[in-house]
Amino acid sequence: xxxxxxxxxxxxxxxxxxxxxxxxxxxxxxxxxxxxxxxxxxxxxxxxxxxxxxxxxxxxxxxxxxxxxxxxxxxxxxxxxxxxxxxxxxxxxxxxxxxxxxxxxxxxxxxx
Length: 112
Fold this sequence. Notes:
This protein is an alpha+beta fold. It is built from two helices and five strands; from the N terminus they run ααβββββ.
């Protein structure tokens, strides 16, 4: 016999099986989706909703770190008052956060 039985392999042994070689790739994609892609999409969705709901009197932070109060909203622009009598116009997409300060609870608890 000229060919040794050790070299004789069928097609599944040569290809390594289909499912077992694809499982790590599918698992890696699933981890990336649930840890990176999905949270980023949800964050973009909430930011878009927040920018659409901007109204007069909201306290906002711009991408440059400027803190101010919205005085006028237009289609793509927002007028922000950064100091008394000082108003600037910023592009709506540069606003990174809406700051809604919680009222301080300075009242003392009632004594029983």
